[in-house]
Specification:
The complex is a heterotrimer of chains A (about 170), B (about 500) and C (about 325). Chain A has 2 domains: about 15-80; about 100-155, no CATH class. Helix content of chain A is about 55%, strand content about 0%. Chain A is built from 6 helices and no strands. Chain B is mainly alpha-helical and about 500 residues long. Chain B folds into 2 domains: about 1-465, no CATH class; about 465-505. Chain B is about 75% helix and about 0% strand. Chain B has 24 helices and no strands. Chain C is α/β, with parallel strands linked by helices and about 325 residues long. Chain C contains 11 helices and 10 strands. In chain C, strands 2-1-3-9-4-10 form a 6-stranded mixed β-sheet. In chain C, helix 2 (about 50-65) crosses helix 9, helix 2 (about 50-65) packs antiparallel against helix 10 (about 290-300) and helix 5 crosses helix 11. The longest helix of chain C has 23 residues, at about 5-25. Chain C starts with a helix and ends in a 6-residue tail after the last helix. The chains are: A mainly alpha (about 170), B mainly alpha (about 500), C alpha/beta (about 325). Chains in contact: A-B, A-C, B-C.
């Protein structure tokens, strides 16, 4: 997928930086591999595979940082831009809003056992829906119906034990 | 002949037919929900099979798994969120078609060629099960090693970005697969003292994270795109017939590759789809169109993953060896219902075997009408406002990840992989390659280490054994080919440039 | 026989029971309702679709009939079984959370994976036990266990290979224990780690390895297909389902036995009265026709022990596993 988007540069890092990140990660993998204990009865221990991967990552990272293989990226531009993409300017701070979903998932993980699925799910729906610019007229009914619908499918049909928490459905 | 008639009689019972229909609808619904896999759809059916007659019990498993594998394509095509690792290979292609306004066409291709592949796989099962089983039995860890490496190389072929970045993504996936104690040494590795990491990183939370969560993240970061152009198709299937006539070779190749890979235990539908998509691009007359919404790759890999699903039953039925997680569950059901796997199943219980074949064919046939209905319903998602779809997807991510093991840690993993996938995509690293690395990692390491143990640390058997040698040549050839092509292009490009430079005053 | 409507019907029944409970709880001052008065959950530390999952589900279905309350199976996977086993131990000891405990509980703490041991549970009943067999390929030169034992003794260390689980897995330890009982070093036969018994059996037939010491139900399809032979079983007596396979003791004179087992347990501090109710119900489940039919169809071995007996089995296994793991250099703790 094309990465460059006008006005959204906050996470568009240079190849130099991502390449160096890969080198660092590869180095960490190699170091971690050397810390693995040997296993009695096996000559090829648990260290070999991460070691090879680590070295590979160091190599790839270096190539990316030196911008080798850029020539292959040329076909990337063949992908037509999304129609009308240029017209709509993205909202301000948009790039950082992108981190809302993972944070909401962490919130789900921490809160679901005490508050229960329905309340947490309603809160998440409401937040995402409003952030995407929906009116309350859409967001509120959705925040009520979506959790109940998902609860019905998963708890009744698939028998997944979603925690009840503070709010229990009357069926 | 009497066995065949008896097989028909066994299938054409009220309870069996109802079981097929109900599990078909169930498989379609579960498979289409992002975050729920075909394996899970099958596993959740096991308690139901307790109450069914033997043939009906097996019928639910066969039907639900075939439907779920197809319907995993639906969210992939409409929202760029693959439902199973098998659809991850061609999700970008299908989504590109959706952006061109051809969502129903792309889904129809998936549906039609899934059914074709499924029927081809069944015919292979019917005609050559014992022969195919011999092939499977001749695969030892040496052969699996080359096969796994070959699978990994598909990452570079499939991606449209720099091959260096594709390889880096794949290596990152392999590094994630090192986590946990499911390695040949059985020691906890890179777990940082966390109990939840002991079992390693499952492909499903990673898949859900890098595709679904990062899609929601992207939606929040970008302005709402204008509504997709929508062209109404008179008939979803009419176009498919044209495609069948246009791409008969890719279709057959997909069927054959799917059947062969499916038979090998440990290499299931995931790998079949990847290898077929890569092959399709390699041998296509128009490789430059791949990734821009070109149906050729969908034809081949769609046929391939459903063909592998049917042939995956060969080692399961003959030797009780599961071809993938779905057949592992199916073997349990077969035993429970007194249809013990083994050659005697083919001789003494031939009528039951014919019944199984008939169910396979029937399941693939009713897939078409039910699938069309499902596509029509699902396509309404495209017209719904983004603000109403994205929150639901995020909830499904959380609940689907949780449901795989009723473990909240999976939700954490999904959040992590969502962030990682988002940052990677922003910088041109293909996330599908990451998923491939996670799926294939343990197979690469396991087959390499166990091979060395078996050969007392000699590398020779990797090249000595006949099948192994052939695979080695194919792998090394595929590995060196792009490098050679690149060098040749460099040389050719340099010469005109040099001439041009010489002519400059 | 529509599976979906069946599911939802069971769901409705369960929900109705839940409502009834809510009704009784809402009236304080009434006598404590008879246990169990609401649905139970049975935690399975392994994934849906496997052998342990299937066993747990049949037990749950039959227990439901005995107790008159739904028993919901919950798969808590992750951490190679550690997560689910911890979940059982740390659940509320109110009698409404039970779980299926597998032999891994006697191994994990020796490997330093968890602090958890068998002593963290209230054992309720042993439901299943399977002894490993000694399987060789049909084309193997060793026709009986004596020949194989001689072959092992006369081969240089590391020449013969065996497989069937990961390094340090249950069947690896069974092999180590057997080798030691014959007076050989634990790594005299080299262990090739595999992802379970089925790939091991496949490799056996493909000629990659020489021995697979996995349980007989796991080897059954290959035995039936005539591709592999089971030379002996590491059990005190022959398995009634496979009466042709001799025990190690009668055929080789080596008295070594081990087994995998599955049993039902609850957290510590479970009130004795509830434990007695559950054990009695489990015993009725064990004796039911449905249970023995199911176990027979899957080829799983039947073995019953009550709470105290199951506790003893766990303690014995724990000690013998510790010994084998220390010998093989696999124990950390």
């Amino acid at each position: 997928m094309p990465a460059a988007r006008e006005g959204n540069r906050a996470l568009q890092l240079s190849d130099r930086i991502t390449g160096l990140c890969l080198v660092a990660l590869g180095g960490a993998a190699v170091y971690g591999a050397t810390q693995q204990p040997g296993v009695p009865g096996q000559d090829v221990g648990p260290s070999v595979f991460p070691m090879v991967i680590g070295l590979g990552l160091i190599g790839c990272g270096a190539l990316v940082a030196l911008r080798v293989g850029r020539s292959f990226e040329a076909p990337d531009e063949v992908v037509p831009p999304e129609p009308g993409e240029a017209m709509a300017a993205p909202p301000r701070f948009a790039e950082w809003r992108a981190f809302l979903p993972p944070l909401l998932l962490v919130f789900y993980m921490l809160a679901v056992d005490t508050l229960g699925f329905l309340l947490v799910a309603a809160a998440i729906t409401l937040v995402v829906c409003l952030t995407l610019g929906a009116r309350l007229r859409l967001a509120l009914p959705l925040a009520v119906l979506a959790p109940i619908g998902i609860h019905a499918v998963f708890v009744r049909l698939l028998r997944v034990p979603l925690p009840d928490g503070l709010l229990t459905l009357p069926w | 002949m009497t066995d065949l008639l008896e097989g028909f009689r066994l299938v054409l019972q009220g309870d069996v037919l109802i079981a097929i229909l109900a599990s078909a609808v169930y498989g379609l619904v579960v498979g289409s929900l992002p975050g729920l896999s075909a394996t899970m759809a099958t596993a959740l059916l096991v308690p139901v099979t307790f109450y069914l007659s033997p043939i009906a019990a097996v019928a639910t498993i066969i039907t639900a798994s075939a439907m779920a594998i197809f319907s995993g394509d639906i969210p992939g095509c409409l929202l760029r969120i693959p439902g199973t690792p098998a659809s991850a290979a061609y999700t970008d292609e299908a989504y590109a078609m959706t952006r061109k306004g051809q969502a129903e066409m792309a889904l129809g291709t998936g549906l039609w060629f899934s059914a074709v592949g499924g029927i081809a796989g069944t015919l292979a099962l019917l005609v050559m099960a014992p022969a195919l089983a011999e092939v499977a039995l001749n695969f030892s860890s040496f052969e699996y090693f080359w096969l796994a490496v070959l699978g990994l190389m598909c990452a570079t072929l499939v991606a449209r970005s720099s091959p260096v970045k594709a390889i880096a993504s794949m290596l990152l996936g392999l590094l994630f697969s090192c986590i946990g104690m499911e390695n040949p040494a059985g020691t906890p590795r890179f777990t940082f003292g966390m109990t939840d990491l002991l079992g390693g990183i499952e492909p499903l939370p990673a898949l859900v994270g890098v595709f679904a969560v990062s899609q929601v993240m992207r939606a929040l970061a970008e302005a709402e795109p204008p509504p997709l152009p929508r062209r109404r198709f008179g008939s979803i299937m009419a176009g498919q017939w044209a495609l069948t006539k246009k791409y008969p070779k890719p279709m057959m190749r997909g069927n054959i590759v799917g059947i062969i890979i499916g038979v090998l235990p440990g290499a299931g539908a995931d790998m079949a789809a990847w290898v077929s998509y890569a092959m399709s691009k390699r041998f296509s007359k128009e490789p430059e169109k791949f990734g821009t919404g070109h149906p050729e790759g969908l034809v081949e890999s769609g046929a391939s993953n459903n063909a592998s699903l049917a042939s995956g039953w060969v080692p399961a039925l003959l030797f009780g060896i599961p071809g993938d997680t779905i057949t592992a569950i199916a073997i349990g059901v077969l035993y429970m219902k007194g249809l013990n796997p083994g050659p005697t199943l083919f001789t003494e219980r031939a009528s039951s075997m014919y019944a199984l074949y008939i169910i396979f064919i029937l399941a693939n046939l009713i897939m078409i009408p039910l699938g069309i209905v499902m596509i029509r319903i699902a396509a309404t998602v495209l017209r719904a406002p983004r603000a109403s779809i994205m929150p639901v997807i995020l909830l499904l991510c959380a609940v689907g990840a949780f449901a795989t093991g009723n473990n909240l840690f999976a939700v954490m993993l999904v959040a992590f992989f969502g962030t990682l996938g988002y940052v990677m995509e922003r910088n041109g690293y293909p996330v599908a390659a990451l998923v491939l690395g996670i799926v294939m990692g343990s197979m690469v390491e396991q087959s390499f280490v166990t091979s060395l143990i078996k050969s007392d640390n000699s590398l020779l058997p990797f090249f000595e054994r006949p099948i192994s040698a052939v695979l080695a040549v194919v792998t090394l050839g595929a590995l060196l080919w792009p490098v050679a092509a690149w060098l040749m292009r460099r040389l050719r490009a340099r010469r005109p440039a040099a001439i041009a430079a010489a002519h400059r005053p | 026989m529509d599976p979906i409507s069946r599911l939802s019907r069971r769901g409705i029944l369960g929900a109705a029971a839940g409502l009834a409970t809510a009704g009784t709880l809402a009236r304080p001052g009434l006598a404590q309702p008879r246990y169990p008065s609401r649905p139970l959950q049975m935690i399975v530390p392994w994934g849906a679709g496997g052998g342990t999952d299937a066993t747990a589900r049949i037990i749950a279905a039959l227990l439901e009939k005995e107790l008159g309350q739904p028993v919901n199976v919950v798969n808590r996977t992750g951490g190679s079984g550690v997560v689910g086993h911890s979940a059982i131990a740390m659940a509320n000891p109110d009698g409404y959370s039970i779980g299926i405990i597998t032999v891994e509980i006697a191994m994990m703490h020796w490997q330093g994976l968890t602090e958890l041991t068998y002593a963290n549970y209230t054992p309720l009943g042993l439901m299943n036990r399977d002894a490993p067999g000694v399987q060789v390929s049909a084309s193997s030169p060793y026709k009986d266990i004596k020949a194989l034992a001689e072959g092992i003794k006369n081969s240089p260390p590391g020449k013969l290979k065996a497989s069937g689980t990961g390094q340090g897995g249950i069947w690896h330890l069974a092999l180590v224990g057997w080798l030691q009982a014959m007076g050989l070093k634990p790594d005299h036969v080299r262990w090739v780690p595999s992802n379970g018994a089925a790939p091991g059996m496949q490799d056996l037939v493909a000629g990659g390895i020489d021995i697979v010491p996995c349980s007989i139900p796991e080897a059954r399809a290959m035995l039936d297909a005539g591709r592999a032979r089971s030379l002996a079983i590491m059990a005190p007596q022959r398995d009634p389902q496979f009466p042709d396979i001799p025990t190690l003791k009668e055929s080789l004179g080596v008295d070594y036995q081990t087994a995998v087992w599955r049993g039902i347990g609850a957290p510590l501090k479970l009130p004795a009265e509830q434990a007695a109710t559950l054990t009695a119900a489990l015993q009725r489940v064990y004796k039911s026709n449905e249970y023995s039919e199911f176990m027979k169809s899957r080829g799983f071995g039947m073995d019953w022990a009550d709470g105290a007996g199951f506790g003893k089995v766990m303690a014995e296994t724990d000690a013998s596993m510790g010994e084998a793991m220390r010998a093989a250099g696999l124990a950390k703790a």
